[in-house]
Amino acid sequence: MRRHTAALAASLAMLFAAGCSHAPGYPAPAPLPPRQVMDFATLYSENCSACHGATGAQGPATDLANPEYEALVDDATLRNVIDNGMQGTMMPAFAISAGGTLTDKQVEVLVSGIRERWQKPNAFGAATPPPYAQTMPGDAQRGQQEYKTSCAICHRSSSQEITGKSYLALISDQALRTFIIAGSPDIGQPDWQHDSRDGKPATPLTSQEVDDIVTYLSTLRNPAAVTQQAGNAVKLGR
Ligand code: HEC
Ligand code: HEC
Question: pLDDT tens digits for 47-93?
């Protein structure tokens, strides 16, 4: 986990540095005006790959190439996350209307390119996952029990400590939920229906159990740590 947090901070630094890479006095090469770039590969590598990985996986942030993630999230949500970022995390807002640099058309190119490359038919087979967004209030006490049963079997060594305040300060409840439901094959996080250590099907988590676990984790989060740990984060304000 700490590996991921450190890597995110480094990605962010690179991203800012990339904006002013020409030495003063030297003319920049003459590429397309930035707002006219409509090529997915260019838009993705310039704006996303530092955090989400060149191939959509293996970056410090969410595995976008995970077919289960692609099946879980709808177009409107993808567009909204890219437009407005995720408050309190390092996911920046990209829409010009939200202070970013991308036009609506460019965001559309990103959404359809992500779908084209990484969405696969039938990602869940016959199973129905809990919905992307939380629908009911969770119960922290039940969540703590459920965490012991379903998560602590793997998350007990310090390198996999996700109950730490400083880790939780950098991740939103939605991202936790996304991780729990869709898993993250690039780092070995199982999805909601494979919560046993050997990866064999266990009892799939219900939507309520996911709500409860996320609620439990969010009660461990210390908002003060956000400012300390994420001084460079693009958006603060949880
Ligand atoms: C079969 C083992 C296993 C189980 C069960 C498991 N995880 Fe994980 N999880 C992992 C591994 C391995 C990683 C990647 C470790 C790393 O990044 O250091 C991970 C990573 C994560 C991450 C992302 C950390 C990051 O890098 O940002 C979150 C969040 C997470 N797990 C939450 C949970 C929750 C909540 C549960 C219970 C519902 C759970 N996990 C159950 C193995 C497991
Ligand atoms: C500086 C690092 C950074 C950059 C650059 C970045 N992201 Fe993210 N992104 C994140 C982090 C961190 C999260 C998880 C945020 C959270 O905790 O909710 C995230 C989350 C997301 C999610 C939502 C995952 C979910 O839970 O539903 C999507 C979709 C996404 N990013 C797409 C993109 C796209 C497309 C780009 C490029 C236009 C991009 N990101 C650029 C760091 C970044």
Answer: 999 999 999 999 999 999 999 999 999 999 999 999 999 988 999 99
Pocket of ligand 2 (CB under 6 A): 8, 11-12, 15, 47-48, 50-52, 61-62, 64, 73, 78, 81-82, 86, 89-92, 94, 110, 171-172, 174-175, 178
Q: Which of 215, 146, 193, 186 is nearest to 54 (CA)?
A: 186
Number of Cα atoms under 13 Å in the Cβ half of residue 17: 7
Q: 175-195 pLDDT, tens per residue?
A: 999 999 999 998 989 999 986
C-alpha to C-alpha distance for 116 and 25, rounded to whole angstroms: 41
Cα 48 to ligand 2 centroid, rounded to whole Å: 8
